[in-house]
Give the backbone structure.
Amino acid sequence: MTPSDADYQRAVDLLLAGELVALPTETVYGLGADAANPAAVAKIFVAKGRPADHPLIVHLAGHDAVEAWAEQVPAVAWELMETFWPGPLTLILKKQAWVPDAVTGGQDTVGLRVPGHPVALELLRRFAAAKGEHAGIAAPSANRFGRISPTTAAHVAEELGEAVPLILDGGPCAVGIESTIIDCSRGEPVVLRPGHISPLHLEAVLGRVPAIETSHGAPRVSGSLEAHYAPITPLRVVTGERLLDFLNAQRHRGGKCAVLSPNQPPQAGMPHAWRMLPADPVGYAHDLYAALRDMDHAGVDLIVVEALPAGADWAAVADRLRRAAAGAGQN
């Protein structure tokens, strides 16, 4: 999918006017507003039902915009940008004094990213050309707060409807889960949210595997609440060896289950719905949110997810599933 010149121009005009625009990135679809305009950013929180102290990630057209938003940028942050931007890595840096509290959640840090999607980059470049100084788009995932992130334009329309004046359709997202967030504001870089760029990828630049810290001492970041990315249907994670017994028990109780698993269903007619997901972490991540959304519409009482393998390469998907299970079933 490629938006037309008229689509891009309308998107830029809306952003300059302080309105919302949904845009595709390689991770998930974002709900975008002019990050330098606190009144525009406030509309994101209203549309999503998002707590106002929850910080947003600012999307930029390129590295050259970083120092307009961040100060005291350490050398390691520039190395990470050179290696992974454009791409699914968000850097937490000390903010410039002017950056609105609406974007940072009142903190002294700001999250910055150059997305690796041609539509997002084209919009960012056109927005920067039109706005000039301080051109960035604040864009959390384009869904109601705490719910499953959208990976197609249709998901955004389903989630937010009339709350967003324009959805730029860039096709399905290539990565499918949110960016890795790495904090470079407190000395040693630390991962605050796992993502597509794994600790092993980061080791190649940092010379060591970074710590993963999701504690309260770290800056608050997007997607760090215990309950997040969640379907409305209750969700349970069950180990592979227990799965069949668990499903049989549910069936005897008269419960309808939908299952997400990398394996074939055990027998015909059981359970109500079964979705095979790829057995590799990248493929699994790509399909996860769309599969959860489909199963949420399957008319079942419970979504059952076969437990993931252990290992660093599965950490990002495991993080999303743990939070989805914590938030599932809460209307």
In short: The first helix runs from residue 5 to 16.
